[in-house]
Write a sequence for this structure.
């Protein structure tokens, strides 16, 4: 009957329909908001990671009244040694902090691992760049496209740290966690529920893909330039006080034979003004002697075959004009990945770091920001290194202010690297060893004072934090390890050679001229020792039965018996990995881990398998303190504004403790226990 | 002759822009950039209408439509198709020729307008406390030593570094620091001779002359605000490295693209109202 009639809709129906729709929309928005909102219920936990802060020095300075804020924190809450990982190397220790479990869970046992199937080929333990697959060749170029019909696999860097990071537990429960400069987390692991944010710290490369390569331009550099560990020197030839040079950028990987990209730089000096003008591309920078430039963007053009548009790789750097005359000396920082438009992912989520850069401008993004290589290679003197390290710290403090300003609740982690790298260069405890290998006693004492000054500065920061959050948040101030003098170095491969375990006697490096058919053990990395085990190593000769066990016992006994010329024990203890590690990530675990006594460390040559005529040598490097000793020699620190019940807290206990603070149980994957529970 | 002509044109465009672009100083960047682009688009459309043969344009467009229909109807007939395609090509050329007059008429005013807009959007003035490098380019001579030109600090600007003399490139550089807001003159002295360069210091919009140019017509067109140095002047040009302005609509890297697209959209929107064929 009603067919043909237009349906009649009343005004009331329209209004009520609109209201219902609006209500539904509002409910949906509210529910969505609830899903994204913090579920930490206002709970705040702040963790300040101070790399390398030493408990012995803290204690003595607190007793002397030089660290009033840390002393206050210790008396109101707690202060303790924090047992570190074995070996006490930063990537190993921080990965243990992240997993709440030891190296057997995360698979990082040393800075450097070796590949047994390639007979001790070394690689960095924390991240690995996997080569791409498939390409098409056009002229001089080899191109990769990751879309159909080509579907090539592009090269990518993967995080080698295994296991489950503790923030995944928080993320799953909707508790926000934010990490600034977290070590052992490059590339950053993903957040599955969107409540976790992180900027990668130690392990993050520069634009060249290294852990930091400075460039140095001077008129007294070798005429063909020089590549040195961590840097590159270029010779400047001045004509009428002007010179041209090139800044070397990343390789153009689109070429069949990848060659480095470059940017022209002209340098003009004015001796009368004691200043110089640098022209980088179209950009002018004017500096007087002893002055640092601001951050400068560099855009490296990469050739492509026509008609493809040209590509570029951008980075940022700062210049430091050390001297104008008589020798012109110009230092350039490693080319950092630009945080305002990062070429690779530096944070989780990707836009976290760009948001920070929009607010704060440009800043260091490489993992190692204090340029210790420039100091070790003699580009910087002590004062210049300290100045650069202080500049890094100031930049970190600006970031720290930003972090606090943008922190509401949940977990906040902030990392300071200055204490580690400045200690490596300036630490010398004359109570343990009066004679520094390269500095006079007063010089060594004045440099050690720099470390104490830094501790005082950090104490001020903690004091400020305690004032702002002391009653509202649980505070942890922790370090991954402590510090010790490094006056003497031990070459484990030279010792193995002299003891008849590594042959022939003329061997200069285990990577080049060792006779594997006559070698039973070798060292690679800082603390690791491997048996040349049959069936595991490509050219293994040691049968994995009683022979291996006998050899292990023999090595442990003989290494622990090594004495220095003054009769001092060099190696405190040698550990079997089978006894101290457990977990699913043991593939690259060494057989033995050498725990050095205070004052000793593996020699510089040992790290990459080189041999020296002597087994024990003085350490001539400005890097005169270290922590790669026995874990019991270099524990870290733990301060908290809450009382700790655990008598011997360990680095692996922190993750369970943080979870405990948010009311979450300790996952089965963790071996640590909450320090707040007895 | 050409230098004098460009000088006159710049004088006229500076005078007009001083009035028409005055609101840019106090309007938000996105608003001024949008308004200017929209108005320019509509004015260009109007000029196009007035200076083009509209009936011929309409006729040619209709013929193109007819030929396109013919192409679809006789696509089986190879000979017809080829002939129609040739005709289409000729008609496209004709359309271009008919547009040539208005394009020629508008070319010079557009160049002058863009040069005026670049004074506002290509760079931002120095903020107080901010530093910049000033470069004086000198006339090449046979002397090994550059002249002793001095830049005197004032209450508005401090000279923080320099001079850095670059004999190989005939230039002298200083680093300056902005102290007080406004449009100021930097004064360079060489004996009795005095050379000046305008400096803009502000936290908002001011016309920014990045270079006082030499007597070179293309440089004069690019940097219209200041009178060029005479051809025989020992100082050939003076540049200030102003910072980039960061904005999608009125920033250094994007203002021209934003102006182009916004004016194009405005022209398309206004087209039916002004009844223009193009």
């Amino acid at each position: 009957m009603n067919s043909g009639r237009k349906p009649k809709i009343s005004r009331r129906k329209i209004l009520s329909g609109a209201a219902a729709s609006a209500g539904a929309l509002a409910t949906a928005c509210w529910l969505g908001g609830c899903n994204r909102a913090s579920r930490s219920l206002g709970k705040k936990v702040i963790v300040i990671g101070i790399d390398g802060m030493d408990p012995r020095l803290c204690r003595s300075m607190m007793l002397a009244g030089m660290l009033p804020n840390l002393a206050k924190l210790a008396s109101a809450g707690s202060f303790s040694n924090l047992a570190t990982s074995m070996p006490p190397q930063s990537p190993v220790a921080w990965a243990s902090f992240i997993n709440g479990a030891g190296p057997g869970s995360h698979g990082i046992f040393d800075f450097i691992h070796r590949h047994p199937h390639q007979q001790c080929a070394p690689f960095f333990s924390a991240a690995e760049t996997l080569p791409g697959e498939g390409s098409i060749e056009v002229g001089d170029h080899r191109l990769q496209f990751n879309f159909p019909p080509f579907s090539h696999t592009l090269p990518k860097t993967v995080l080698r740290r295994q296991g489950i990071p503790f923030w995944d537990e928080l993320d799953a429960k909707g508790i926000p966690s934010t990490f600034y400069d977290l070590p052992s987390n490059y590339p950053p692991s993903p957040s599955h529920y969107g409540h976790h944010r992180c900027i990668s710290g130690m392990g993050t490369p520069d634009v060249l893909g290294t852990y930091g390569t400075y460039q140095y331009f001077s008129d007294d550099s070798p005429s063909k330039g020089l590549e040195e560990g961590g840097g590159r020197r270029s010779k400047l030839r001045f004509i009428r006080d002007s010179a041209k040079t090139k800044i070397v950028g990343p390789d153009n990987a689109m070429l069949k034979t990848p060659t480095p990209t470059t940017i022209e730089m002209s340098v003009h000096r004015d001796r009368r003004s004691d200043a110089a003008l640098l022209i980088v591309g179209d950009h002018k920078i004017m500096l007087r002697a002893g002055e640092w430039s601001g951050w400068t963007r560099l855009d490296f053009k990469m050739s492509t075959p026509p008609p493809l548009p040209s590509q570029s790789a951008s980075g940022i750097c700062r210049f430091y004009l050390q001297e104008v005359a008589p020798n012109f000396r110009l230092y350039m920082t490693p080319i950092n990945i630009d945080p305002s438009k990062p070429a690779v992912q530096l944070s989780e989520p990707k836009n976290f770091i760009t948001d920070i850069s929009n607010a704060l401008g440009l800043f260091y993004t490489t993992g190692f920001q204090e340029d210790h290589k420039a100091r070790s290679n003699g580009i910087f003197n002590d004062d210049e290194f300290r100045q650069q390290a202080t500049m890094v710290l100031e930049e970190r403090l600006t970031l720290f202010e930003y972090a606090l300003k943008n922190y509401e609740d949940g977990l906040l982690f902030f990392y300071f690297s200055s204490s580690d790298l400045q200690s490596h260069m300036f630490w010398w405890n004359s109570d343990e060893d009066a004679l520094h290998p390269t500095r006079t006693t007063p010089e060594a004492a004045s440099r050690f004072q720099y470390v104490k000054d830094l501790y005082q500065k950090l104490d001020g920061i903690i004091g400020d934090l305690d004032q702002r959050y002391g009653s509202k948040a649980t505070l942890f101030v922790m370090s991954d390890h402590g510090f010790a003098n490094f006056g003497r170095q031990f070459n484990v491969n030279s010792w193995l050679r002299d003891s008849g375990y590594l042959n022939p006697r003329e061997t200069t490096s285990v990577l080049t001229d060792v006779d594997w058919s006559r070698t039973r053990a070798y060292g690679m990395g800082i603390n690791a020792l491997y048996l040349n085990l049959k069936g595991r190593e490509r050219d293994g000769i040691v049968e994995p039965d009683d022979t291996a066990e006998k050899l292990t016992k023999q090595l442990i006994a003989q290494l622990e018996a090594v004495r220095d010329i003054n009769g001092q024990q060099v190696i405190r203890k040698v550990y079997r990995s089978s006894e101290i590690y457990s977990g699913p990530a043991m593939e690259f675990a060494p057989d033995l881990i050498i725990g050095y006594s205070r004052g000793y460390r593996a020699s510089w040559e040992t790290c990459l398998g080189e041999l020296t005529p002597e087994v024990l040598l003085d350490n001539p490097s400005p890097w005169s303190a270290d922590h790669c000793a026995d874990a019991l020699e270099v524990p870290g620190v733990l301060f908290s504004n809450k009382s700790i019940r655990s008598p011997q807290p360990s680095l692996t206990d922190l993750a369970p403790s943080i979870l405990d603070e948010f009311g979450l149980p300790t996952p089965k994957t963790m071996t640590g226990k909450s320090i707040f529970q007895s | 002759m050409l230098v004098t002509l460009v000088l006159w044109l710049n004088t006229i465009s500076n005078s007009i822009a001083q009035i028409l672009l005055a609101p840019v100083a106090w309007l938000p960047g996105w608003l001024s950039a949008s308004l200017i682009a929209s108005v320019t688009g509509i004015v260009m459309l109007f000029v196009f209408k007035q200076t083009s043969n509209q009936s011929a344009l309409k006729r040619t467009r209709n013929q193109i439509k007819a030929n396109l229909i013919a192409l679809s109807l006789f696509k089986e007939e190879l000979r017809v198709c080829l002939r129609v395609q040739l005709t289409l090509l000729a008609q496209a050329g004709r359309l271009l020729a008919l547009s040539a007059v208005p394009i020629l008429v508008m070319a010079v005013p557009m160049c002058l307008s863009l040069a005026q807009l670049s004074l506002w959007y290509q760079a931002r003035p120095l903020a107080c406390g901010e530093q910049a490098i000033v470069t004086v380019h000198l006339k090449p001579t046979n002397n090994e030593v550059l002249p002793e030109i001095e830049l005197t600090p004032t209450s508005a600007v401090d000279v923080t570094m320099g001079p850095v003399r670059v004999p190989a490139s005939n230039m002298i550089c200083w680093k300056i620091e902005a102290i007080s807001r406004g449009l100021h003159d930097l004064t360079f002295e060489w004996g009795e001779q005095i050379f000046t360069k305008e400096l803009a210091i502000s936290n908002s919009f001011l016309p920014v002359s990045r270079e006082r140019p030499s007597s070179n017509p293309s440089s004069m067109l690019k940097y219209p605000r200041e009178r060029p140095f005479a051809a025989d002047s020992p100082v050939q040009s003076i540049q200030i490295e102003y910072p980039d302005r960061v904005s999608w609509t009125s920033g250094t890297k994007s203002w021209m693209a934003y102006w182009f697209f916004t004016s194009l959209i405005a022209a398309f929107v206004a087209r039916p109202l002004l009844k223009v064929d193009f």
Notes: The two ends of chain A are 82 Å apart (CA to CA). Residues 487-622 of chain A form one domain. Residues 441-469 of chain A form the longest helix (29 residues). Chain A touches chain B at residues 239-242, 268-270, 272-273, 275-277, 283-286, 288 (CB under 8 Å).
